[in-house]
Amino acid sequence: MRAWRDEQRSSGAQVGLVATMGALHSGHLHLVQTAAASCSSIVISIFVNPAQFAPHEDLNEYPRTLPSDIAQLQGLALNTTLVVFAPRVSDMYPRGISTDRSQQRGAFVEMLGLSEMLEGSTRPHFFRGVATVVTKLFHVVEPRMAYFGQKDVQQCCVVKAMVDDLLFPLRVVVVPTVRDKESGLALSSRNVYLSKEEKERAPAFYRGLCRAKELFASGVVEGDKLLGVVREEAEKSGLDIEYVCLSSPDDLQNVDVVDERGAILSGAWRMGSTRLIDNILLGFEF
Q1: CA 20 to 30 Å from 115, out of 11, 30, 130, 156?
Q2: pTM for this one?
Q3: Catalytic residue status for 28
């Protein structure tokens, strides 16, 4: 990969990175297509990162579909060079890696102040794993542009802040969430775990987000009212809500009112054993 990157640098190519854990779907492909509009060469990484999982989470069950991932990528009509980077765990963690944080050894990256909020409140290991693996990918690929989906909005905030703090010479591009055309459910690799009945109920959270967005557009800025319609819509369909938050885009702290900075309205819920997340942006864009 580094030899290829040296060739790209010498030729003046604009290299873009799309970092994934595989199990590709239309949302990932849209990231690649978006990157192709600005980059002459694209690297898509496919790596299930153990550092993002706790011992009780689904690392072993997480779908690994490299042959079909490559087939989907080959089906894209692109006028750019597309390279798949699929490293081994030993390549990315030469000292080894345990999902038990107390057993981990070596260098890790943390974004204090952002990683503990929202998703980090219940998954304190997660963004440490994200920041570490993305840092490694940036060092290996040395992209000029890196593309991330808005569905994982906290990840976008963490990576953008990390790029600023660690002085990476690249730009993070946040791409709007790709959704099922009929239901509006955000595309996710974990959607494959949903039963037919769960797929029918899961979009209720997004319907609540849309109602909140309509309220905001009509002039409502109070957090309790915006959060209330999301909870109301979700509870109608019996969703097991883990959290719904209105957060500052600067530091992800909870806010009571959407001010001139705008806000992120986000949440997580469970459908059986499957955990889903979604969000909308109010009054700002990345």
Answers
A1: 30
A2: 0.96
A3: yes
